[in-house]
Amino acid sequence: MPKILLVEDDASIIESLSQYLESEGFSLRSVSGQRDALDIIDKEAFDLILLDLSLADGNGYGVCLEIKKNRDIPVIFLTASGDETSVVAGFEMGADDYIPKPFRPRELVSRIKNVLRRYDKKSNVTLIEGLKVDLDKGQVSREGEEIYLSALEYRLLVIFIQNRGILLSRNKLLDDIWDIAGDYVNDNTLTVYIKRLREKIEKDPANPTIIKTVRGRGYRMD
């Protein structure tokens, strides 16, 4: 189920779009301002952003620029400003589509699906918390600086990426690492590798936000 963030300060639009998009099979979160939008994007993963140009604080351009700086998330502008200057400015800042208000819900859904399809065909790159993982090239980096992982550390990271949002028990991780690495990895070794991986990819390894511990149950990457 694609997860969408709606950044909009019109309560009536939020209500109507929430009902319609959820009925079309999308999961929707909404915020009204620039500050809240940037805050939630740092904490949660989204497949697409629906972004109003005029916000309660700031504007959609600022949000779009910040999103595109470190993340590979598609952005569709929703705005009453349909003039050519606004449209061009939006695309120059990295917007993937631009829909003037008032819009027809079916057209919006069609455009959302088209944008998501385009992203599905792009290179196999995952961006999370400023970390960039290119699965096609086998590269991990942050802010342009490559992070060097051992073979097993990288495989462990790939397992989490391929199971984003899913709780992985320690037994599940051990089974998957055994299958991939072909080497015996025991419970203590798994603890060591997760610690080493966090030290390399987390901004604050003591308080991890990429690979989270679910006490007594395992680990999860949101």
From TrEMBL:
Known function: May play the central regulatory role in sporulation. It may be an element of the effector pathway responsible for the activation of sporulation genes in response to nutritional stress. Spo0A may act in concert with spo0H (a sigma factor) to control the expression of some genes that are critical to the sporulation process.
One matching Pfam family: Trans_reg_C
Keyword Chloroplast attributed: no
Keywords, ordered alphabetically: DNA-binding, Phosphoprotein, Transcription, Transcription regulation
Residue ranges of domain OmpR/PhoB-type in the record: 123-222
Organism: Lachnospira multipara
Protein name: Stage 0 sporulation protein A homolog
PTM annotation (4-aspartylphosphate): residues: D52
DNA-binding region per Swiss-Prot/TrEMBL record: 123-222
An example Gene Ontology CC term for this record: cytosol
GO molecular function, one term: phosphorelay response regulator activity
PANTHER family listed in its UniProt record: ALKALINE PHOSPHATASE SYNTHESIS TRANSCRIPTIONAL REGULATORY PROTEIN PHOP (PTHR48111:SF73), REGULATOR OF RPOS (PTHR48111)
Domain annotation Response regulatory: ranges: 3-116
Source organism superkingdom: Bacteria
GO biological-process terms attached to the record: regulation of DNA-templated transcription
